[in-house]
């Protein structure tokens, strides 16, 4: 009788130990804000607060899910951006504005990327212009092509916002001159992070319709975390959980033993 009770309690202890270990490991598995919305999978060094333990990610790489199940990254002094994609191999994160107007964010504030673990692949300076609607047809009597792109989210029927690259090249200088001659007002230049692909092909990047591309340096990952979805085992936390269980099992075993001894004396 005592042997069967002891076997039962021992098996219960092993089950609880296994359950605790599995639970700790599952907290660091890959997660998404939404399975249906093509949201990026989040693994180390990133983590989603409220879905993963603090040990599953590295400080500064915290993400959240908004009320629409979109993945959100908050940059210091720059506000929140939605995450479109995370490429863990190339260490590239693609961000976009929830109002689909990155140009406004660039124009209104300098991104404080240096205050975060992220950095730009490179930077380029752009000139913003407020132009009359007639600029679309303006060519100054020539067939000269103006190297500029229109920003739809900042433009209105009475004002077109155009952007040119401020590289110092003769082509960009001529584009600026033609826009000013066409009645455009040049605003303050803005320094903007560009993706890796645009370093050699700068005119391939149109931030009025594309994303914000940032990279990061991979932080050191503890050896215990290198297993898939794993995290460093917290022995203190485990002891806090398991000690009451062991105490309870011991108390039950003692009570069972006393009852059996009393029955034998009778």
TrEMBL record:
Membrane topology of the entry: Single-pass membrane protein
InterPro entries recorded: ATL20-22-like, WAK_GUB
Subcellular location: Membrane
Assigned EC number: 2.3.2.27
Residue ranges annotated for the Wall-associated receptor kinase galacturonan-binding domain, each copy included: 28-97
Annotated signal sequence range: 1-24
GO molecular function: polysaccharide binding; ubiquitin protein ligase activity; zinc ion binding
Family matches, as Pfam families: GUB_WAK_bind (PF13947)
Pathway: Protein modification; protein ubiquitination
Keywords from the UniProt entry: Membrane, Metal-binding, Signal, Transferase, Transmembrane, Transmembrane helix, Ubl conjugation pathway, Zinc, Zinc-finger
Reaction catalysis annotation: S-ubiquitinyl-[E2 ubiquitin-conjugating enzyme]-L-cysteine + [acceptor protein]-L-lysine = [E2 ubiquitin-conjugating enzyme]-L-cysteine + N(6)-ubiquitinyl-[acceptor protein]-L-lysine
Transmembrane segments: 235-260
GO CC annotation: membrane
Protein family according to the UniProt entry: Belongs to the RING-type zinc finger family. ATL subfamily.
Designated name of the protein: RING-type E3 ubiquitin transferase
């Amino acid at each position: 009788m005592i042997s069967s009770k002891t076997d039962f309690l021992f098996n219960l202890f092993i089950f609880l130990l296994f359950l605790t270990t599995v639970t700790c490991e599952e907290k660091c598995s890959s997660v998404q804000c939404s399975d249906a919305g093509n949201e990026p999978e989040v693994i180390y060094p990133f983590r989603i607060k409220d879905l993963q333990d603090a040990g599953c990610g590295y400080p500064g790489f915290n993400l959240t899910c908004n009320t629409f199940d979109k993945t959100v990254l908050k940059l210091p002094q720059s506000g929140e951006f939605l995450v479109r994609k995370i490429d863990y191999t190339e260490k590239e994160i693609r961000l976009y504005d929830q109002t689909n107007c990155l140009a406004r964010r660039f124009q209104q504030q300098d991104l404080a990327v240096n205050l975060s673990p992220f950095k730009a692949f490179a930077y380029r300076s752009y000139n913003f212009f407020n132009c009359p609607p007639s600029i679309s047809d303006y060519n100054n009597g020539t067939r000269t092509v103006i190297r500029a792109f229109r920003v739809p989210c900042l433009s209105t029927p009475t004002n077109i916002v155009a952007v040119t690259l401020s590289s110092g090249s003769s082509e960009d200088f001529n584009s600026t001159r033609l826009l000013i001659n066409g009645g455009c007002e040049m605003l303050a230049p803005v320094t903007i992070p560009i993706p890796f692909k645009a370093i050699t092909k700068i005119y391939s990047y149109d931030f009025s319709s594309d994303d914000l591309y940032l990279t990061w340096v991979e932080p050191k990952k503890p050896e215990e975390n290198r297993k898939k979805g794993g995290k460093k085992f917290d022995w203190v936390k485990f002891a806090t959980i398991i000690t009451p269980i062991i105490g309870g099992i011991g108390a039950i075993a003692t009570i069972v033993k006393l009852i059996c001894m009393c029955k034998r004396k009778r």
